Amino acid sequence: MNEHRRPLIAANWKMHLLRREASDYCRRLREKVGGGDGPEVAIFPSPVLLPAVAEALAGSTIAWGGQDVHAEPRGAHTGDVSAEQLADVGCTWALCGHSERRRDHGESDALVGRKAQAARAGGLLPLICVGETAEERKAGKTFEVLSTQVAAALASKPQPFALAYEPVWAIGTGETATPELAQEAHRHLRSQAAELLGEDVAQGLRILYGGSVKPGNAAGLIVQEDIDGFLVGGASLDVDSFSGIIGSSGPGT
Ligand code: PGA
What we know:
It is built from 11 helices and 8 strands. The chain has helices at residues 19-32, 50-57, 83-88, 99-105, 109-121, 134-138, 142-153, 179-197, 199-204, 215-222, 239-247, and strands spanning 8-12, 40-44, 63-66, 93-96, 125-130, 162-165, 207-210, 229-232. The chain is globular and about 45 Å long.
């Protein structure tokens, strides 16, 4: 965390929760999240939950976004959701290139770049996810993989945007990257962003860490210079544990 970048703590609910649970969660979360100087907070629900989330969070400081966005603005794309549709239910953000999308739907680096561009064109902030697999890390290819993913994702210069470093081996496994290892990857990503978009953009860019973040490990990660928040999966499904992570991530922690 750097004092010039406000932390962003995001909940990725994946394919969990029903409308009633989502509404109750949001009502409880807005009682706990103050805004002010604290971290910025965003929720990424499944698309069918977005209207319920929008209703429960209306007028709060908490933002919401889509877990995915189509690369085209509209058209014959059964089962997909456009940036304009997300914006229409009040989304501020769109996740692009989550590793589960890359794995389950074969999303390529180039497609992720087009999605980030579509999100920006539709008035959304892309939160672009990158990260290496266990095999790539073992083969010493982590930086190479991250550089390739970032270059493709930023080819359209989708500013503003945020990045999430999510090592695939740490997602949903309980195996969190150590603060030092995460910091090393985040520093690399920031230097890549500087090469591609200039030092000013890179210094203002928020790079979130994701992968088995919990209330017990958030504080050790957020103190790293280049870690500017979290994208939280499993631990975000419980409002107390998600707000515990938010509480560990404020300025002055
Ligand atoms: P996790 O998921 O916190 O359950 O590891 C993170 C993510 O996939 O964004």
